[in-house]
Amino acid sequence: MNDIYKNEILNDIKDIEDIYIAGHVNPDGDAVASVFSLALYFETLGKRPHVLLECVPKRFDFMYGGEFFIALDEIDVKTAPDVFFAVDCGDRQRLGKAAEVFDNAKLTYCIDHHRTNVGFADKNVINADASSASEIVFELLKGFGYEPEKNIKIATDIYSGIVFDTGGFRHNCTGRRTHEIAGMLVEGGVDTSFIQSKVLFEHTLPQARLFGKALANMQHKDGVTYTTLTLDEMSECGCTSQDLDGIVDFILNLDVSECAVLVTQRSENSAKASVRSKKFPIADIVVSLGGGGHALAAGVTLDGSAAEVCDRIVSLITDGLKNG
Ligand code: AMP
Ligand code: MN
Ligand code: MN
Known about the structure:
Elements: H1 2-13, E1 18-22, H2 29-44, E2 48-53, E3 69-71, E4 83-87, H3 98-104, E5 107-112, E6 123-126, H4 133-144, H5 152-166, H6 176-187, H7 192-201, H8 205-216, E7 219-221, E8 224-229, H9 231-236, H10 247-252, E9 259-267, E10 270-277, H11 283-288, E11 292-293, E12 297-303, H12 306-323
Parallel strand pairs: 1-2, 1-4, 2-3, 4-5, 5-6, 8-9
Antiparallel strand pairs: 7-8, 9-10, 10-12, 11-12
The structure holds adenosine monophosphate (AMP) and manganese (II) ion (2 copies).
């Protein structure tokens, strides 16, 4: 992968100063880390990176590169970049409002690890075997000559993204190469315990209250553990949809769970489902509903109340489990 894209990317951006980079809406730790690390690297080449993200969730504000961040609300959708990198996005829609800027770009790249990605950019660096977009960014930068010890900010971001998407090197997307890369980043000096605590374990008091609510609403049926949260329940706890980390993973880890579903209301008549599985591949079911993701972790937003969306998805999964 490195060799094919090494010359191509560097050649493509040779005479370009302003580089646009965007991650997916509702950005997670991998989305933030991968776009910021790429931006920090382009800065070392004397470029002006612009990072388009819906927001930078507070828990990821320890990551470096925040100076490049532009909120989607503030972007001029008429911007026509010379080059645009879509990172950690399985499809164009996942860019949200940044998709319009993507459409205006002269040249588009997609850097991603979602198996459902069909390659929606002009040039696509997609590796579904990579643990995270951050891992792919590392491979690219290494191909360009990047060495972790020479830029600890980039190393910290990449390690954070990998830790986030692998759940601390636990998910099955974690490969030998993931550990090798982590080893190189550790050798470069990243503070592993600080990053692990920040990315995986630190929660706010409102989040803890929301966790309680999600567990109080939890139900279980035929191997599927599921729960819902309405907008009122989230706001009663002082939370938003940015505060959901850890909930679906916790209910998946229950001994009775083969699959887990968390459905959260997003507007009057739409709800987002986060689906997780220990073994049974759930991506096909979620993709058939218009969503995307990975074999064991996928998501979709559907019309309906949280309870309706949850019923619909849970019955598809219980059917799948029975027939599979
Ligand atoms: P989440 O449940 O939001 O943590 O997402 C799990 C995985 O599914 C991640 O890899 C997401 O990028 C992907 N994903 C989540 N929601 C969607 C969606 N609406 N469309 C496509 N992919 C999604
Ligand atoms: Mn992501
Ligand atoms: Mn990712």
